[in-house]
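Researcher: Structure for this, please.
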Amino acid sequence: MRAAAATPSFADEALFVQQLRKHYGGAAVVDGLSFSIRRGECYALLGPNGAGKTTTLRCCLGLTQPDGGAIRLVGEPVPGQARRARIRVGVVPQMDSLDPDFTVAENLLVYGRYYGLADRYVAERLPALLEFASLAHKRDARIGELSGGMKRRLTLARALVNDPEFIFMDEPTTGLDPQARHLIWDRLKQLLARGKTILLTTHFMDEAERLADRLAVIDHGRMIAEGAPHALIAAHIEPQVIEIFGDGARDWADSTGRHLAARLEVTGDTVFCYSTDPSTVMQALEAWPALRYLHRPANLEDLFLKLTGREMRAES
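Model: Predicted structure, token format:
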């Protein structure tokens, strides 16, 4: 994790959002949301399904008209000057929208034209873009010949065609295997080291914890927590967690665990004990040899579930 930036001035803000509101069918999807992102940092926007993350991104890009609030992206007011702002921005959408009729290189060349870039300029950037995406050997391959991880890396390279200063990434590693995810993480770290600014949405808490300088947890379109990942964990969650599972875990929780843990949650067949002194819990578990347990430090997923709940949300 890079060192925290100093308190920003307005000139340091790559994105400024104040009291953003958006309603659909009378329901508030984004409800007075405010945050700002410093130039050169990675800021993660976390929330369950239907929390308003994608609508917020679309409003910030000028693709959805907000019902109220103020947005300034790379110094430009949105939606008033959204087109001018987007020239300096790259976007990695949730779903790859690569053209199957073109090769890898042609996808990048054609996309550059959307920004008004000359083919010669994009052609000069192609070797570096393909090398960055580890796709130099696939330059002339059709999209159907690429794996899922390759397509995702090409989508990332495509978002960099215009050498943007700000990059929106909407769930960039969903559906990828662990090796592909780690490769994407490495590329994102390289972009941050080059001074790029990233707004990231993700359902992978380890991804946010690894990449984000700061993050916001939103639910029902409202901000419920914001800060550096480790600072938020320390502020909201007991430092140690013991996960207990197996037949009899609920009985153990009712008879013993509730008296020992600072906080206890039961989900399915698993009991989560949150504690500042896990030794007393583990000693008590010795009398229940049929139970298994895992002792670990608290993490961002614990924070997320405490703030938003463990119940499943319907897809929006």
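Researcher: Any notable elements?
Model: The mean pLDDT is 91. The longest strand covers residues 13-24.
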